[in-house]
Amino acid sequence: MTKLPNWADVVLVPLVSLLLAAIIAALVLLGIGQSPSEALAIMVKGAFGSASGWGYTLYYTTSFIFTGLGVIVAFHAGLFNIGGEGQAQMGGLGVALVCLALPWPHWTVALLAASIGAAAFGAAWAAVPAYLQAKRGSHIVITTIMFNYIAAALIVYMLVDVLRPPGQMDPASARFPKGASLPALSDMPLLRGFFAKVNADGSPKLNAAGEQLYSNVPANVTLFIALAACVIVWFLLWRTRLGFQIRAFGKSEKASQYAGISPVKITMIAMLISGGLSGMMAVNNVMGAAERLLQNSAEGAGFIGIAVALMGRNHPLGVLLAALLFGFLYQGGAALGLNTTIPLEMRIVVQGLVILFTGALDQMVRMLLVWVFSFGKKGVA
Q1: pLDDT number for residue 2
Q2: Residue 48 carries which DSSP code?
Q3: What is the total count of domains within the chain?
Q4: Looking at the predicted structure, is the pLDDT value of residue 233 above 60?
Q5: What does the pLDDT look like over 56-108, one tens digit per residue?
Q6: Which of 17, 28, 64, 381 could disulfide-pair with 357, CB 3.0 to 4.6 Å?
Q7: pLDDT-based confidence at residue 3 (cuts at 50, 70, 90)
Q8: Which of 358, 313, 302 minimizes the C-alpha distance to 126?
Q9: Is residue 346 part of a domain?
Q10: Is the pLDDT of residue 370 over 60?
Q11: pLDDT at residue 380, as a whole number
C-alpha cells in the first residue's frame, strides 16, 4: 500500500474528513427542508461577523485548546484520557477555592494562583486513574469515564452543602472578589477599538457621560495563556528528553522499557500533565466568564477536547486550529438556533459528524487518499 506524504497526512486527511462531514450535514439540512448555504452564512456571520461573535468564538476556542492539549499529551504516551470533563470540573473547584480564599489585591496575582489551583486539582483527579493503570493494570478509558461521573457528583455536593452562600437558592458558589476579576479582551487597550460599539454610520456609541461603549465579551486574557500552552506543549513533546520518553513509550512500551524508560513514571507524568491542562480550562469560564463556580462549569469542553485532538492530528498547532473550528461550530450553531427554525441540536449533529470522520472513519479517508495518490502515480507512469 502506498504511504501518504507527510503533508497529506497532516493537512489533507483532516480537510477531506471535514469536507465529508460538511456534505453529510448539508444533506441532513436538505432532508429537514432547510437551505445549507443559508445555514452556513448565518453560522459564519454569527461566529465571525461581529465583535460579540468573535468574543464568544474565542471564548469557546480557549477552553477547547486546554482540553485538546490535555488529550494529546496523554495520547503521545499511548494513553486515551477521556476524563477531561471531570478533570476540568475539578479544576473549576480549585479555581473557586483559590479565588474565594483571599481578598486578592490584583487580578494578575489571582490569575497565577488560580491557574496553579486549577492545574493541581485537575492533575490530582487524573492521578488516581493513572496509578490504577500503571500499578494495577486498570484500563485508563474505564477509570477516567468513572471519574467523570464522580467529579460531577462531588461538584454538586460542594456547591449545595459547602460553597453555597446562606440564603442562596441556586447551587453555585459566591461571586469572586473584585480583585479576582479577569479583564475581557474588550477591556484591553490594543483590542478595545475592535470591540467598540458603533452606530449605523460608523460613529462610536456613547453613554450618558459621553464615554464610548464597548461590547462585553466572555473571551478574556486566558486566551493568551492557552496560546502559550500550545508552545509549551510543543516544546515539551518535541524538544525535551521527557517529551522523547513520552513519545517513545507511546510508540512501543516494550522497546522503551528495554531503553530504560519506566512505564510507571511516564504513565504518571503524562496523565498528571494531561489532567493539569484540562483543569486549567476552568480559569477561562469559572474565573473569566462566570466569576463563580457553577454546576456545569466544564460545559462539555472535556469531551470536545477529544475531537479537537483527533482533528488536530495530535499536534499543538493542529489543536489550535481545530479548537477554533469547534469554537465556530459552538457560536455559529447558537446563532443558527436563535435566527432560524433549525433546531440548536443541529450543532451537535455537525460536531458528531466531524468526530465520526476524523476519528472512527479516519482510516477510510486515509485509504481513499492512498487510492487517489496511487492512481495519480499510475497515470503519470
Answers
A1: 60
A2: H
A3: 1
A4: yes
A5: 999 999 999 999 999 999 999 999 999 999 999 999 999 999 999 999 999 99
A6: 17
A7: confident
A8: 302
A9: no
A10: yes
A11: 54
Q: What is the pTM of this model?
A: 0.92
**Residue 214 φ then ψ, to 5°:** -130, 150
Residue 256 sits at the vertex; the CA angle it makes with 248 and 7, to the nearest 5 degrees, is 20
Nearby residues of 304 by Cβ (< 8 Å), 6 or more positions away: 64, 67, 326, 351
Query: Is residue 152 one of the residues assigned to a domain?
Result: yes
127 within domain boundaries? yes
Closest CA to 94 of 70, 73, 71, 121: 121
Is the distance from CB of 119 to CB of 276 less than 8 angstroms?
Answer: yes
Model pLDDT for residues 22-64, shown as the tens digit of each residue: 999 999 999 988 899 999 999 999 999 988 899 999 999 999 9
Question: CA triplet 325, 19, 304: central angle to 5 degrees?
Answer: 35
Cα 204 to the center of its chain, rounded Å: 34
The DSSP code sequence of 108-170 is HHHHHHHHHHHHHHHHHHHHHHHHIIIII---HHHHHHHHHHHHHHHHHHIIIIIISPTT--S
CATH of the domain at 277: 1.10.3470
Look up residue 353 and give its three cell numbers.
459528524
193: enclosing H helix or E strand: helix 192-195
pLDDT at 366: 82
**Which pLDDT band holds residue 367 (cuts at 50, 70, 90)?**
confident
CA–CA distances in Å: residue 166 to residues 286, 291, 296, 333, 338:
21, 18, 21, 37, 36
Residue 201 has pLDDT above 60, yes or no: yes
Question: Counting every residue, how long is the chain?
Answer: 381
Query: Contact at 8 Å (CB) between 279 and 118?
Result: yes
Question: What does each C-alpha distance from 331 to 60, 76, 177 come to in angstroms?
Answer: 8, 30, 29
Buried b (16+ CB within 10 A) or exposed e, 141-150: eebbeebbee
Q: Which domain covers residue 161, as residue numbers?
A: 35-184+219-340
Domain-embedded: residue 10: no
At residue 230, what are phi and psi to the nearest 5 degrees? -60, -45
